[in-house]
Amino acid sequence: MKKKMNVLFIITDQFRADHLGCYGNPIVKTPNLDKLASEGVRFTNAFCTNPMCMPNRSTFLTGLYPNVHGVRSNGINLPTDLATITEALYKRGYHTINVGKPHFNFWLPPYKLLPKSSESFEAWLADKAGDNPVKENFPIPYYGFREVEMIAGHGNLCLGHYLDDWLDERAPDLAKRVREIFHVDTFFALFCDSFIPEEHYNTKYVEERTIAFLERYSKGEYGEKPFFLHCSFPDPHHPVCPPGKYRDMYSPDDIELPKSFDNIKNLYDHPFLGPHLKQPPFRGALLRESTEEEVRKFTALNYGSETCIDHSIGQILASLEQLGLAENTMIIFTSDHGDFMGDHGMLLKGPAPFNGVLQVPLIWKVPEITKPGVTDALVSTIDLSKTILTLLGLKERHQPPNMQGYDMTPVLKEPDNPDKQVRDCCLIVHDEEVGPKGPLYARLLHYITKTYKLTIYEGVKGYGDLFDRKNDPDELNNLWFDENTKDLKYKLIEDLLHEDLKIQSRFPERQAGT
Of 496, 428, 430, nearest to 273 (Cα)? Predict the structure, then answer.
């Protein structure tokens, strides 16, 4: 390959790994992603580094753990002085562009007046930008991106360039209605009726604007520069409201409840989860206890959103082929985190030890590198950026300093070879804050191997969760107090401690000998 390779990085929001046909889901229709999986490498043991939007997305962009890049929880802006992979790529001749949801700045109003956000709901809803970094004041470059077409929000309730520059032009009456109904409480609803048709929905915006860039690129408008394209769909994150035919594509009656659904009763005695289930934090958007009817409807609507996204991804991939760009473009598909989706009687996300929120889909296709395959190699979101830069030939001195992920190239080259697997564990850090020190203020660590998953909780001594991933995939049997696994538990705790020590910040750097 003579020319530098392009990158099409496709990310969705709150998309479970098992909500794809290629991952074994018998109901949801995802033919385009299934086809991509048949042409590339599909990872069955991919995990987020943090199961919340902003921390995990910031980890991808920087190659650093949340405790190092500083976005420990949603609601904390990614520092602008940190090195990013997009800036590194730009310096090596790449054009960097974001289409869709970045979420590197907070959305909801700050507790104090000083912090400003380029993705603030309040600022984007205002008639004028004032001194806010939105609208005509939007900062470019934005975390290394030289071109940004942004969405802030989900479902019907999306702001940013999508609303101001696209929907206003195509359907001003719809844009006006979005502004009129936009309210924080509505934003945290589970689902709603979509009054926006398919041709004006946020998924279509991401599809259309991504293809428009590819067409501009193929015409030579960016010269000889290769591109890094961050294509980010806001769905299927709630409020779920798939447009048009996708809303009724799946029937709630066809949805099978998870085997762990009734386990919610046992969680009331869980020393960490119990108190939060009895008093749900953050408008029920975290650790939300649910009903059969609600889970069935929510899952069916998620399937509709996911099939809608799959269709748009198919259009993007078809354009890549038609424009002659596919043979020189690396394609990655993943999500920032998952969703409980009825597991243990809960919906959405939140600090908990369960797989549905922690595992993510990951499909990776690299020209002249990958062959079709499936791998059970452990991989974390933090590894993606390191691997991308390595595959693109950026030497370590040109990469952001102190990146903490692993290069997964050996796995991509030989997915079936267990000797080429890089990781023996994944560490997931969850530093959750809702409100200033309440109603949710918690830290968790998840230590995952191919066989076991261990979770420990700050302030909860003498208790944790230990699941056998092979023999108990529904995570119904906590082995923490099992005498037969006592030695195993202590070994995993020690391994977790050493892994946690490994990821701690070494900032500021030493400046002198003594």
Answer: 430
Distance CA 315, CA 275 (A): 46
Amino acid letter, residue 255: I
Number of domains in the chain: 1
Q: Does residue 161 belong to any structural domain of this protein?
A: yes
Local mean pLDDT, 10-residue blocks, the chain (514 residues): 88 98 98 98 98 98 97 96 98 98 94 89 96 97 98 96 98 96 83 93 98 98 97 97 97 97 95 91 84 98 98 98 98 98 97 98 98 98 98 97 97 97 98 80 96 97 98 98 97 98 90 88
Cis peptide before 141 (omega within 30 of 0): yes
What is the CATH classification number for the domain harbouring 208? 3.40.720.10
90 occurs within a structural domain: yes
Nearest-angstrom CA–CA distance, 199 and 201: 6
Residues 55, 65 contacting (CB under 8 angstroms): no
Asked if the structure places residue 312 within a domain, the reply is: yes
Q: What is the pTM of this model?
A: 0.97
Domain residues for 143?
A: 6-253+291-337+363-423
**Alpha-carbon distance 128 to 157, whole Å?**
19
The alpha-helical segments, DSSP class H, found in 118-224 are: 121-125, 161, 168-170, 172-181, 184-187, 202-218
